[in-house]
Predict the 3D structure of the following.
Amino acid sequence: MPRHALDTEHYTSPDTLALERARLFGKLWTFVGFSSMVRQQNQFFSRRVAGVPILIQRTEAGIRAFINECPHRLSAIQTESTGKRPLVCPYHAWSFGSEGELRGMPNHGLYQFSSAEREKICLHKLHIEEVGQLLFINFSETPQPLNEQFSDDFLTRLRDASGRLDSQIIYSCHRVKYNWKLNMENVKDYNHVPFVHPKTFLPAMTQMVRELAPAEPESPSMIIDMLTKQAEVPLDTLSYTTQASLKPYKNWFADLCDSPGDDHHYYNWFIYPNVNFCSVKGEHFLLQQYDPVSPGETDYHLWMTTARRKDERTDFTALLSALIRGERTVIAEDTQVLERMQSGFGEHSSRFLHGEYEAHIVQQHLWYRQNVLETQP
Amino acid sequence: MTHYLLVGEGEALDQAVRTSREMAIDCTVITLESADRYNFDISGLLAHYPPQDSRVFVALDQRAVNYARHKLIADVRMAGYQLFDLISPKAIVEDDIRLPGNVYIGPGCNIAADCKIGLGVWLDRQVILDRGVQLGSCVTLLAGVVLGKKVKIGTGSTLSSGCTAADGTQVGRHCEWLLGGRLPPSLPDTSFFDQLMPEGARVFKNG
């Protein structure tokens, strides 16, 4: 009986990535950053989402998202990754208003656009939603409601958690040589922790792995059942929360921020398709995002922060630099494994063989087959 | 009689002791305790050495973008102590260089004219500063760093051994460049580079 739903070719194929760009990242709400990064008018950040350059900027109208491309010669409007400046193209100084409409065109006589043409000139605006401090964009002209992608309960949890984030954030982005899906599967696969992170992550946990209820010898397999029935997987089940117990300890900075104090848990909020948002004891938070660059390359975005500081004068620069080094050490351990896996994938590769604890991954693969590949296993 | 006191911990304190001996300064060494390597207890210092009779040099390792050294120097000054500098006799320092206190200049360093050195700066062995270099307070330059003309390094920043910076390079405040080699033309404030993060990480304050 099959115990897999996705073949390795979908981790190496440019055609599959093209489908993902159209049917996954082109349709779903995707995390892009934090609202605290655009607090002041004209503050912006720019980045790529599945290869598309985007720009998030606070305008007079609020937080807005655009394709980072001037309609004239397609030059980037904002050339830095963060900053504070109006929406003015640096190439020929076309300027744009709060909703992306054309405001100014120096030397306009040279262009000789008709009034009708000029009226239509604007930046390509994208839909944007705030969930607590998390910002999501959608490339679709008519996006599905956010609560079709995420359950109301999950959205409430995201709002609660992200509402506690501090505004001092450390960020890094590095490129890894594996398909983005491998990382999302890796973070949902808690059974790798004792073997890949025996010295870094495991010592903090109270038990090696979460346990499944013991099964009767002949009890039916949930995985095989799912694959056999080909049941439709609801999109909102792919994003969910988990928590694991940590050995009790106190961080020196706990009293300096609005942390719960006696909470000894590690929390995950898995945000489909490509985000792992976590918290250690409600004291510090990390958000990882795996953004596809090519079938075998991913931009690994990492943001880390603490719970909100009690006093804005407290400076956590040194703390954040230490926290991100710890996290990057763990990530480097995963990277070694995942890059090795990716480099081994080929026509010779056999099929994945998922166990019962990987039901979430198989579910994710089933949804992906039905909605991205539009095929059955 | 003036007491010269070396206070701090770790390798920095050991190195300060060696240099004070080379300078033939008779120093009392006080190792300070701290649970978090940030808040150091100076009550013993206050109890035994009256500020009016003492000069202090704070020697702390460079980690954590030098906030700990900055804070301890501030605590010591607030308590009324004057600071002194440690300049190796094997260093070359142009006559016009003003040292504002608690500056360490190790053996083999060569500091050209018109350089501005901040409070609490730590220059390890064989650091070379060309003309017009500006170092903010509590900058740490490890062994063999070479800075070209008019390079500016912001408060609290650390450059690792063997770094070179071309003329006019600008490094922001509280940065760490631990990759060696040639620095890029500029580094923004609170940015961090090391073997684990060669592409860098950066703190956004979003205030």
Q: What stands out?
A: Chain A is about 25% helix and 25% strand.
